[in-house]
Amino acid sequence: MIKALEKDLADNFDIHFNDHALLDEAFTQASYVNEHPNQGLKFYERIEFLGDAVLQIIVSEYLFKRYPDMSQGKLTRLRAAMVCEASFSEFAKECRFDQYIRLGKGEELSGARERSSLLCDIFESFVGALYLDQGRPVVEKFVRTVIFPKLDQGKFDHVIDNKTALQEYLQRHGDVAIEYRLLSEEGPENDITFKVEVIADGKVLATGMGHSKKTAEQDAAKAALSDIRAK
Amino acid sequence: MIKALEKDLADNFDIHFNDHALLDEAFTQASYVNEHPNQGLKFYERIEFLGDAVLQIIVSEYLFKRYPDMSQGKLTRLRAAMVCEASFSEFAKECRFDQYIRLGKGEELSGARERSSLLCDIFESFVGALYLDQGRPVVEKFVRTVIFPKLDQGKFDHVIDNKTALQEYLQRHGDVAIEYRLLSEEGPENDITFKVEVIADGKVLATGMGHSKKTAEQDAAKAALSDIRAK
């Protein structure tokens, strides 16, 4: 099983482990160790403890440097969305790690292999093992492949507002002038509809509508992001 | 103020900042920025976001390597005791960081300088700034001076049991055979008092008593730790 995993890692990520026992450990659950008591096996939990902190610092440092003007509050929300069970369990499946977990029979029958808490643990323990075996630069390369592209794909936009998300996206390579311009106010006084357009470096990206200027701007930013990502 | 801080850092920790503005930022609260709106000041929160993750990884990696047989559960409890507001605010005071925080007048009057949440924030932001300015090895040296000695002094023993704490202490430089030997059982059947001694590499360290063997062993381990630390 570990041979197949090593082939997967080499083919997909150009990762080549030196310490095969460490990789074994990272993919072995306690239930499997309990069923094979005389093999001197270890389970992943300690390495997961380390991997969790490794992911925290790599994601934190990346966000801190990529978004030099983002507030601590937004940075914290973004990090929490990236470094969490829901995200890590998805990444584990994308990396096909679920196939390689060594589980006891009872755990297997109870569907543990599909359980997001286990998948999250395994993602963290893999990263912990990679860090111990190959050092931080190789982990960073892996994270740049697996996690960071999701930022540009808008996967974590829900935790920051659309205007912020659009600004962060447009300004990722440098300063871009972003402007929201009011186009019209229509309807009766107690039910006005505002229409705005969002303009980046003089180019109109999209328009948006809403019952306040603020919601119209958010709507325009959302439309602009969606257009950009459809391209 | 920052000059005095820089002198303190140089004298006490042999730390010499390159980027003085970064150090300023790390010690400046939002309330101070608000009172000086035209000075282009920044407040510490973003750097604190980074510093928190830096401390997590350094403490995690240290515990992981120092205690190769400690379970994830105990590692996690120990890390939580070390990386928390109560600890960091103490460390901040020990480092005399409280003197150097730039606060707005209202915050000063309300006693913010003594508030443990602020002291904790400043400890983290200092570490974040140190990491950005000097890199991880210098932060590790600082943490080795300020945080890690507290482990040997027993500051965090309350989160792991005494037997574990004694074992971790005795085995910090290599394997030591630790044995608990029952010396006596005395008293009526429903109120037996057990007496045990704890032995390390053949040498009796201490004795302990309790109404079960387990509590007597914990008592002996506690006495041994207290003897060791009194020396």
From TrEMBL, chains A, B:
- Enumerate the spans annotated as DRBM domain: 161-230
GO CC terms, sorted: cytoplasm
Query: What SUPFAM superfamilies does the record tag this protein with?
Result: dsRNA-binding domain-like (SSF54768), RNase III domain-like (SSF69065)
Which Pfam families does its entry note? dsrm (PF00035), Ribonucleas_3_3 (PF14622)
The record, for InterPro entries, names: dsRBD_dom, RNase_III, RNase_III_dom, RNase_III_sf
Cofactor list = Mg(2+)
Principal EC category: hydrolase
Oligomeric state and interaction partners are given as: Homodimer.
Its protein name is: Ribonuclease 3
Q: Which organism is it from?
A: Pediococcus argentinicus
Classification from the root reads: Bacteria, Bacillati, Bacillota, Bacilli, Lactobacillales
Tell me what gene encodes this.
rnc
